[in-house]
Amino acid sequence: MRGILFGPRRQPPPLPLFPAAKRSSAPANLLFARLYRFLPASPILRLLLLLALLSLIPPAFFHLRLRRFHQMRERKCGWIARPPMVCAHGGDSTNAFPNSMDAFRMALDARVDCVEVDVSRSYDGVLFALHDRQGSTKDVW
């Protein structure tokens, strides 16, 4: 009935799948136009320029990651800068008899940080060095 009285019914135009983006202001387009002027006209030169710019990404990435690398290296290998303390147990027992004056002297000549001595006291009050004696063993630094 509607088609007879008012004429044929008109269909609205179909909506586009991808509507056109709103154009930004002219200064942005002007900026791209200025940058486009500096690009070389040859496609090969443009490709080389693109490759040159892409080659700057890995050094920049690794430069930013360098701090993290140094932190990890310090955590794993920090003992190199601050070496552990070396203590000679009974003196230098590889070159002299353990707990002897020669072993103590050789250990001190080897520049160790400390020498561990097992000191015991006899019944008459004399101190002597005896390695791993059970009972009255004391460590003296």
From TrEMBL:
Enzyme class: hydrolase
Short name of any one Pfam family annotated for the protein: GDPD
Annotated EC: 3.1.4.46
GO molecular function: glycerophosphodiester phosphodiesterase activity
UniProt keyword Transmembrane, yes or no: yes
Membrane-spanning segments: 44-66
Reaction catalysis annotation: a sn-glycero-3-phosphodiester + H2O = an alcohol + sn-glycerol 3-phosphate + H(+)
Residues of the GP-PDE domain: 84-141
Alphabetized PANTHER family for the sequence: GLYCEROPHOSPHODIESTER PHOSPHODIESTERASE GDPD4
The protein's name in its UniProt record: glycerophosphodiester phosphodiesterase
Species of the source: Zea mays (Maize)
